[in-house]
Protein backbone atom coordinates (compact mmCIF):
# COMPACT_ATOMS: atom_id res chain seq x y z
CA UNK A 1 0.00 0.00 0.00
CA UNK A 2 1.56 3.35 -1.05
CA UNK A 3 0.34 6.41 0.86
CA UNK A 4 2.98 8.95 -0.18
CA UNK A 5 1.83 12.52 0.32
CA UNK A 6 -1.29 11.50 2.26
CA UNK A 7 -1.75 13.44 5.51
CA UNK A 8 -3.12 10.96 8.02
CA UNK A 9 -4.45 11.73 11.49
CA UNK A 10 -4.47 8.93 14.08
CA UNK A 11 -6.41 9.73 17.25
CA UNK A 12 -5.23 7.57 20.15
CA UNK A 13 -1.91 7.29 18.33
CA UNK A 14 0.07 6.80 21.55
CA UNK A 15 -1.95 3.74 22.55
CA UNK A 16 -1.36 0.06 21.92
CA UNK A 17 -3.06 -0.22 18.52
CA UNK A 18 -2.53 3.43 17.54
CA UNK A 19 1.26 3.30 17.86
CA UNK A 20 1.50 0.17 15.68
CA UNK A 21 -0.82 1.81 13.15
CA UNK A 22 1.32 5.01 13.07
CA UNK A 23 4.40 2.92 12.32
CA UNK A 24 2.72 1.02 9.50
CA UNK A 25 1.39 4.25 7.96
CA UNK A 26 4.84 5.87 8.09
CA UNK A 27 6.31 2.76 6.43
CA UNK A 28 3.74 3.24 3.65
CA UNK A 29 4.98 6.80 3.04
CA UNK A 30 2.21 8.78 4.79
CA UNK A 31 2.65 11.97 6.80
CA UNK A 32 1.26 10.98 10.20
CA UNK A 33 -0.11 13.14 13.00
CA UNK A 34 -0.88 11.40 16.27
CA UNK A 35 -3.38 13.12 18.56
CA UNK A 36 -3.55 11.78 22.10
CA UNK A 37 -4.23 13.04 25.63
CA UNK A 38 -1.98 10.27 27.08
CA UNK A 39 -4.75 8.97 29.33
CA UNK A 40 -3.71 5.36 28.74
CA UNK A 41 -1.16 5.84 25.96
CA UNK A 42 2.48 6.76 26.35
CA UNK A 43 5.18 8.55 24.40
CA UNK A 44 7.34 5.47 25.08
CA UNK A 45 5.25 3.74 22.41
CA UNK A 46 6.74 6.20 19.89
CA UNK A 47 10.38 5.38 20.64
CA UNK A 48 10.93 4.00 17.12
CA UNK A 49 9.24 6.90 15.26
CA UNK A 50 9.59 10.05 17.37
CA UNK A 51 12.46 11.31 15.19
CA UNK A 52 10.79 10.28 11.93
CA UNK A 53 10.63 13.36 9.63
CA UNK A 54 7.03 12.55 8.60
CA UNK A 55 5.71 12.06 12.15
CA UNK A 56 4.20 14.60 14.53
CA UNK A 57 2.79 13.94 18.02
CA UNK A 58 0.16 16.38 19.37
CA UNK A 59 -1.23 16.40 22.91
CA UNK A 60 -4.96 16.99 22.55
CA UNK A 61 -8.20 15.67 24.02
CA UNK A 62 -10.64 14.84 21.20
CA UNK A 63 -13.63 15.84 23.30
CA UNK A 64 -12.53 19.35 22.25
CA UNK A 65 -12.57 20.53 18.62
CA UNK A 66 -9.42 20.11 16.58
CA UNK A 67 -8.30 22.15 13.58
CA UNK A 68 -5.76 20.43 11.33
CA UNK A 69 -5.67 19.76 7.58
CA UNK A 70 -5.73 16.06 6.76
CA UNK A 71 -6.76 13.56 4.06
CA UNK A 72 -7.61 10.59 6.29
CA UNK A 73 -8.60 10.14 9.93
CA UNK A 74 -8.30 6.93 11.95
CA UNK A 75 -10.38 7.49 15.10
CA UNK A 76 -8.92 5.18 17.76
CA UNK A 77 -8.92 7.44 20.82
CA UNK A 78 -10.74 5.74 23.70
CA UNK A 79 -9.53 3.70 26.66
CA UNK A 80 -10.12 0.07 25.69
CA UNK A 81 -9.58 -2.06 28.78
CA UNK A 82 -12.39 -2.43 31.34
CA UNK A 83 -10.15 -1.18 34.19
CA UNK A 84 -9.29 1.98 32.27
CA UNK A 85 -12.68 2.76 30.75
CA UNK A 86 -14.50 2.19 34.06
CA UNK A 87 -12.18 4.51 36.00
CA UNK A 88 -13.89 7.63 34.60
CA UNK A 89 -16.99 6.32 32.81
CA UNK A 90 -18.39 9.78 32.02
CA UNK A 91 -15.18 10.73 30.24
CA UNK A 92 -15.28 7.38 28.37
CA UNK A 93 -18.70 8.17 26.92
CA UNK A 94 -17.62 11.75 26.18
CA UNK A 95 -14.57 10.48 24.32
CA UNK A 96 -16.66 8.13 22.18
CA UNK A 97 -19.55 10.49 21.52
CA UNK A 98 -18.17 14.07 21.66
CA UNK A 99 -14.91 12.75 20.21
CA UNK A 100 -16.77 11.21 17.27
CA UNK A 101 -18.74 14.43 16.69
CA UNK A 102 -15.53 16.48 16.67
CA UNK A 103 -13.66 14.10 14.37
CA UNK A 104 -16.65 13.78 12.01
CA UNK A 105 -16.88 17.59 11.93
CA UNK A 106 -13.19 17.74 11.07
CA UNK A 107 -13.69 15.14 8.31
CA UNK A 108 -16.66 17.10 6.92
CA UNK A 109 -14.70 20.38 6.81
CA UNK A 110 -11.57 18.84 5.25
CA UNK A 111 -13.31 16.22 3.05
CA UNK A 112 -11.21 13.52 4.76
CA UNK A 113 -12.11 9.85 4.76
CA UNK A 114 -12.68 8.74 8.34
CA UNK A 115 -12.47 5.31 10.00
CA UNK A 116 -14.01 4.47 13.36
CA UNK A 117 -12.39 1.86 15.63
CA UNK A 118 -15.54 0.26 16.92
CA UNK A 119 -15.63 -2.92 18.93
CA UNK A 120 -17.10 -6.38 19.39
CA UNK A 121 -18.59 -4.89 22.59
CA UNK A 122 -21.37 -3.44 20.43
CA UNK A 123 -22.71 -7.03 20.42
CA UNK A 124 -22.70 -7.05 24.26
CA UNK A 125 -23.27 -10.54 25.71
CA UNK A 126 -24.34 -11.97 22.35
CA UNK A 127 -27.20 -14.38 21.70
CA UNK A 128 -25.91 -15.08 18.19
CA UNK A 129 -22.74 -17.03 17.71
CA UNK A 130 -20.36 -16.36 16.01
CA UNK A 131 -21.26 -12.71 15.65
CA UNK A 132 -22.13 -11.41 12.19
CA UNK A 133 -22.30 -7.71 11.37
CA UNK A 134 -26.09 -7.79 10.93
CA UNK A 135 -26.63 -8.89 14.55
CA UNK A 136 -27.88 -5.92 16.62
CA UNK A 137 -26.46 -7.12 19.90
CA UNK A 138 -27.56 -7.75 23.47
CA UNK A 139 -26.28 -4.84 25.52
CA UNK A 140 -27.08 -3.66 29.03
CA UNK A 141 -27.57 0.13 28.81
CA UNK A 142 -27.12 0.77 32.55
CA UNK A 143 -24.28 -1.55 33.60
CA UNK A 144 -20.64 -0.87 34.37
CA UNK A 145 -19.57 -1.72 30.79
CA UNK A 146 -22.26 0.50 29.26
CA UNK A 147 -20.14 3.67 29.13
CA UNK A 148 -17.91 1.87 26.63
CA UNK A 149 -20.46 -0.34 24.83
CA UNK A 150 -23.15 2.31 24.42
CA UNK A 151 -20.60 5.05 23.73
CA UNK A 152 -19.22 2.98 20.85
CA UNK A 153 -22.73 2.15 19.61
CA UNK A 154 -23.64 5.84 19.60
CA UNK A 155 -20.41 6.63 17.74
CA UNK A 156 -21.40 4.10 15.04
CA UNK A 157 -24.80 5.81 14.78
CA UNK A 158 -23.11 9.19 14.33
CA UNK A 159 -20.80 7.80 11.66
CA UNK A 160 -23.70 6.34 9.68
CA UNK A 161 -25.76 9.52 10.02
CA UNK A 162 -22.88 11.62 8.67
CA UNK A 163 -22.60 9.07 5.83
CA UNK A 164 -26.33 9.31 4.98
CA UNK A 165 -26.90 12.99 5.77
CA UNK A 166 -23.62 14.51 4.56
CA UNK A 167 -22.32 11.82 2.16
CA UNK A 168 -19.15 11.64 4.25
CA UNK A 169 -16.82 8.78 3.27
CA UNK A 170 -16.81 6.62 6.42
CA UNK A 171 -15.39 3.24 7.37
CA UNK A 172 -16.42 1.34 10.51
CA UNK A 173 -14.42 -1.64 11.81
CA UNK A 174 -15.55 -3.73 14.78
CA UNK A 175 -12.38 -4.91 16.47
CA UNK A 176 -12.37 -8.13 18.51
CA UNK A 177 -9.84 -8.85 21.29
CA UNK A 178 -6.39 -7.95 20.02
CA UNK A 179 -3.06 -8.49 21.75
CA UNK A 180 0.64 -7.91 21.24
CA UNK A 181 3.65 -5.87 22.32
CA UNK A 182 2.88 -2.43 23.89
CA UNK A 183 -0.25 -3.51 25.68
CA UNK A 184 -0.30 -1.69 29.00
CA UNK A 185 1.10 -4.11 31.62
CA UNK A 186 -1.51 -3.04 34.21
CA UNK A 187 -4.56 -2.73 31.97
CA UNK A 188 -6.22 -5.86 33.31
CA UNK A 189 -6.80 -7.33 29.87
CA UNK A 190 -6.50 -11.07 29.96
CA UNK A 191 -3.48 -11.69 27.71
CA UNK A 192 -1.25 -8.99 29.22
CA UNK A 193 -2.40 -9.80 32.76
CA UNK A 194 -1.71 -13.54 32.50
CA UNK A 195 1.69 -12.99 30.86
CA UNK A 196 2.79 -10.46 33.49
CA UNK A 197 1.53 -12.71 36.32
CA UNK A 198 3.31 -15.74 34.82
CA UNK A 199 6.59 -13.87 34.35
CA UNK A 200 6.46 -12.54 37.92
CA UNK A 201 5.55 -15.99 39.32
CA UNK A 202 2.28 -14.57 40.72
CA UNK A 203 -1.06 -16.39 40.81
CA UNK A 204 -2.93 -16.39 37.49
CA UNK A 205 -6.32 -14.80 38.16
CA UNK A 206 -8.99 -16.65 36.19
CA UNK A 207 -12.40 -15.01 36.61
CA UNK A 208 -15.40 -17.29 37.11
CA UNK A 209 -15.02 -20.89 35.94
CA UNK A 210 -12.75 -19.74 33.09
CA UNK A 211 -15.07 -21.37 30.56
CA UNK A 212 -15.93 -18.05 28.92
CA UNK A 213 -14.37 -17.78 25.48
CA UNK A 214 -12.63 -15.11 23.47
CA UNK A 215 -10.75 -15.13 20.17
CA UNK A 216 -7.43 -13.33 20.09
CA UNK A 217 -5.98 -11.49 17.09
CA UNK A 218 -2.33 -10.51 16.87
CA UNK A 219 -1.78 -6.75 16.48
CA UNK A 220 0.02 -6.94 13.08
CA UNK A 221 -2.92 -8.79 11.53
CA UNK A 222 -5.38 -6.30 12.99
CA UNK A 223 -3.47 -3.25 11.72
CA UNK A 224 -3.35 -4.81 8.25
CA UNK A 225 -7.13 -5.25 8.35
CA UNK A 226 -7.75 -1.66 9.48
CA UNK A 227 -5.60 -0.22 6.68
CA UNK A 228 -7.23 -2.48 4.08
CA UNK A 229 -10.64 -1.23 5.18
CA UNK A 230 -9.54 2.42 4.89
CA UNK A 231 -8.07 1.77 1.44
CA UNK A 232 -10.94 -0.32 -0.04
CA UNK A 233 -12.05 1.39 -3.22
CA UNK A 234 -15.67 2.48 -3.43
CA UNK A 235 -17.82 3.82 -0.66
CA UNK A 236 -18.59 0.64 1.30
CA UNK A 237 -18.83 1.92 4.89
CA UNK A 238 -18.93 -1.42 6.74
CA UNK A 239 -19.34 -2.20 9.55
CA UNK A 240 -16.89 -5.06 9.26
CA UNK A 241 -15.67 -7.45 11.93
CA UNK A 242 -11.89 -7.70 12.33
CA UNK A 243 -10.61 -10.40 14.62
CA UNK A 244 -9.38 -13.94 14.81
CA UNK A 245 -12.12 -16.55 14.54
CA UNK A 246 -10.26 -19.22 16.53
CA UNK A 247 -11.99 -19.24 19.87
CA UNK A 248 -10.45 -20.46 23.13
CA UNK A 249 -11.51 -20.46 26.76
CA UNK A 250 -9.82 -18.32 29.38
CA UNK A 251 -8.74 -21.56 31.15
CA UNK A 252 -6.95 -22.81 28.05
CA UNK A 253 -5.28 -19.43 27.53
CA UNK A 254 -3.96 -19.55 31.12
CA UNK A 255 -2.57 -23.05 30.61
CA UNK A 256 -0.84 -22.11 27.33
CA UNK A 257 0.77 -19.02 28.89
CA UNK A 258 2.00 -21.00 31.92
CA UNK A 259 3.49 -23.60 29.60
CA UNK A 260 5.11 -21.09 27.23
CA UNK A 261 6.68 -19.00 30.01
CA UNK A 262 7.78 -22.09 31.98
CA UNK A 263 6.18 -20.39 34.98
CA UNK A 264 5.49 -21.97 38.36
CA UNK A 265 2.41 -19.75 38.80
CA UNK A 266 -0.79 -21.39 39.99
CA UNK A 267 -4.28 -20.68 38.65
CA UNK A 268 -6.70 -19.14 41.17
CA UNK A 269 -10.38 -18.36 40.68
CA UNK A 270 -11.88 -14.92 41.30
CA UNK A 271 -15.50 -13.80 40.86
CA UNK A 272 -16.65 -13.13 37.31
CA UNK A 273 -17.07 -9.37 36.70
CA UNK A 274 -20.59 -8.03 36.08
CA UNK A 275 -21.84 -8.39 32.47
CA UNK A 276 -18.74 -10.33 31.40
CA UNK A 277 -19.67 -11.81 27.97
CA UNK A 278 -19.69 -15.64 28.04
CA UNK A 279 -18.71 -16.20 24.46
CA UNK A 280 -17.20 -14.06 21.76
CA UNK A 281 -16.03 -14.97 18.29
CA UNK A 282 -16.16 -12.99 15.04
CA UNK A 283 -17.66 -14.19 11.80
CA UNK A 284 -15.13 -12.70 9.36
CA UNK A 285 -16.82 -13.73 6.10
CA UNK A 286 -17.33 -10.08 5.11
CA UNK A 287 -13.70 -9.14 5.78
CA UNK A 288 -12.55 -12.11 3.71
CA UNK A 289 -14.85 -11.23 0.82
CA UNK A 290 -14.53 -7.46 0.74
CA UNK A 291 -10.99 -6.90 2.07
CA UNK A 292 -9.35 -10.20 1.13
CA UNK A 293 -8.25 -10.25 4.76
CA UNK A 294 -7.87 -12.98 7.34
CA UNK A 295 -5.50 -13.24 10.32
CA UNK A 296 -2.24 -15.08 9.59
CA UNK A 297 -0.42 -15.14 12.92
CA UNK A 298 -0.98 -18.30 15.02
CA UNK A 299 -1.80 -17.73 18.69
CA UNK A 300 1.41 -19.33 19.94
CA UNK A 301 3.56 -17.26 17.55
CA UNK A 302 1.88 -14.03 18.63
CA UNK A 303 2.12 -14.98 22.29
CA UNK A 304 5.85 -15.71 21.87
CA UNK A 305 6.45 -12.13 20.66
CA UNK A 306 4.23 -10.68 23.36
CA UNK A 307 5.93 -12.67 26.10
CA UNK A 308 9.35 -11.52 24.81
CA UNK A 309 8.14 -7.89 24.93
CA UNK A 310 6.87 -8.13 28.52
CA UNK A 311 9.96 -10.05 29.61
CA UNK A 312 12.12 -7.17 28.36
CA UNK A 313 9.78 -4.45 29.73
CA UNK A 314 9.60 -5.98 33.22
CA UNK A 315 13.39 -6.40 33.33
CA UNK A 316 13.90 -2.68 32.58
CA UNK A 317 11.17 -1.53 35.01
P1 LIG B 1 -5.30 2.07 24.37
O1 LIG B 1 -5.93 2.44 25.67
O2 LIG B 1 -3.93 1.50 24.38
O3 LIG B 1 -5.29 3.32 23.38
C1 LIG B 1 -6.26 4.35 23.41
C2 LIG B 1 -5.53 5.68 23.23
O4 LIG B 1 -6.51 6.73 23.22
C3 LIG B 1 -4.57 5.99 24.37
O5 LIG B 1 -3.34 6.38 23.86
C4 LIG B 1 -5.27 7.11 25.15
O6 LIG B 1 -4.36 7.94 25.83
C5 LIG B 1 -6.02 7.80 24.03
N1 LIG B 1 -7.18 8.57 24.48
C6 LIG B 1 -8.16 8.19 25.35
N2 LIG B 1 -9.07 9.17 25.49
C7 LIG B 1 -8.66 10.19 24.69
C8 LIG B 1 -9.17 11.49 24.41
N3 LIG B 1 -10.31 11.94 24.98
N4 LIG B 1 -8.50 12.29 23.55
C9 LIG B 1 -7.35 11.86 22.98
N5 LIG B 1 -6.81 10.64 23.21
C10 LIG B 1 -7.47 9.82 24.06
O7 LIG B 1 -6.31 1.08 23.64
P2 LIG B 1 -6.14 0.23 22.31
O8 LIG B 1 -6.23 -1.19 22.67
O9 LIG B 1 -4.99 0.72 21.52
O10 LIG B 1 -7.50 0.61 21.56
C11 LIG B 1 -7.54 1.57 20.52
C12 LIG B 1 -8.95 1.64 19.96
O11 LIG B 1 -9.35 0.37 19.45
C13 LIG B 1 -10.01 2.06 21.00
O12 LIG B 1 -10.93 2.92 20.37
C14 LIG B 1 -10.67 0.75 21.35
O13 LIG B 1 -12.01 0.93 21.74
C15 LIG B 1 -10.56 -0.03 20.04
N6 LIG B 1 -10.58 -1.47 20.31
C16 LIG B 1 -9.49 -2.12 20.79
C17 LIG B 1 -9.55 -3.49 21.06
C18 LIG B 1 -8.36 -4.27 21.57
O14 LIG B 1 -8.48 -5.48 21.80
N7 LIG B 1 -7.20 -3.67 21.77
C19 LIG B 1 -10.74 -4.18 20.83
C20 LIG B 1 -11.85 -3.47 20.37
C21 LIG B 1 -11.75 -2.12 20.08
N1 LIG C 1 -10.15 -12.35 32.63
C1 LIG C 1 -9.70 -13.25 33.59
N2 LIG C 1 -8.68 -12.85 34.41
C2 LIG C 1 -8.08 -11.65 34.33
C3 LIG C 1 -8.52 -10.74 33.33
C4 LIG C 1 -9.57 -11.12 32.50
O1 LIG C 1 -10.22 -14.36 33.71
O2 LIG C 1 -7.16 -11.38 35.12
C5 LIG C 1 -11.24 -12.76 31.74
C6 LIG C 1 -12.40 -11.75 31.72
O3 LIG C 1 -13.32 -12.02 32.75
C7 LIG C 1 -13.00 -12.04 30.34
C8 LIG C 1 -11.79 -12.44 29.49
O4 LIG C 1 -10.76 -12.79 30.41
O5 LIG C 1 -13.91 -13.12 30.40
C9 LIG C 1 -11.30 -11.32 28.58
O6 LIG C 1 -11.15 -10.14 29.37
P1 LIG C 1 -10.52 -8.80 28.78
O7 LIG C 1 -10.68 -7.76 29.83
O8 LIG C 1 -9.17 -9.07 28.23
O9 LIG C 1 -11.44 -8.47 27.51
P2 LIG C 1 -13.02 -8.33 27.30
O10 LIG C 1 -13.77 -8.89 28.46
O11 LIG C 1 -13.24 -6.89 27.10
O12 LIG C 1 -13.22 -9.17 26.09
Index terms:
seven-stranded parallel β-sheet, Rossmann fold, 317 residues, binds nicotinamide-adenine-dinucleotide, binds uridine-5'-diphosphate, two-stranded parallel ribbon, alpha/beta
Can you offer a commentary on this structure?
This protein is an alpha/beta fold and 317 residues long. The chain has a domain at 7-179 and 217-245 and 280-296: NAD(P)-binding Rossmann-like Domain (Rossmann fold). It is built from nine helices and 13 strands. The chain has helices at 16-27, 82-87, 89-110, 146-166, 190-200, 219-231, 250-261, 285-291, 299-316; strands spanning 7-11, 31-36, 55-59, 72-75, 113-119, 170-175, 178-179, 204-207, 213-215, 217-218, 240-242, 247-249, 267-270. The strands form four sheets. Strands 3-2-1-4-5-6-11 form a seven-stranded parallel sheet, with helices on both faces. The protein has a two-stranded parallel ribbon with strand order 7-10. A two-stranded parallel ribbon has the order 8-13. The longest helix is centred in the first third of the chain and has 22 residues, at 89-110. The radius of gyration is 19 Å and the shape is globular. It starts with 6 loop residues before the first strand and ends with a helix. Bound molecules: nicotinamide-adenine-dinucleotide (NAD) and uridine-5'-diphosphate (UDP). Nicotinamide-adenine-dinucleotide (NAD) is lined by residues 11-12, 14-18, 36-41, 61-63, 76-80, 84, 95, 99, 117, 119, 175, 177-178.
Amino acid sequence: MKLSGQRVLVTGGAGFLGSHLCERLLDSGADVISVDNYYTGSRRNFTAILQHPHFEAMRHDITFPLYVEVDQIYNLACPASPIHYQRDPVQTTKTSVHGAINMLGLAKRTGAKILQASTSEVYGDPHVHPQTEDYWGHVNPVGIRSCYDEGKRCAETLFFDYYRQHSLPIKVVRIFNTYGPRMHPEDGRVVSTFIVQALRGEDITVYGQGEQTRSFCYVDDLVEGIIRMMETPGDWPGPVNLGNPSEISVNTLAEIIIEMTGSKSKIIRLPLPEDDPRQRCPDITLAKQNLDWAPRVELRDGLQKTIAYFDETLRVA
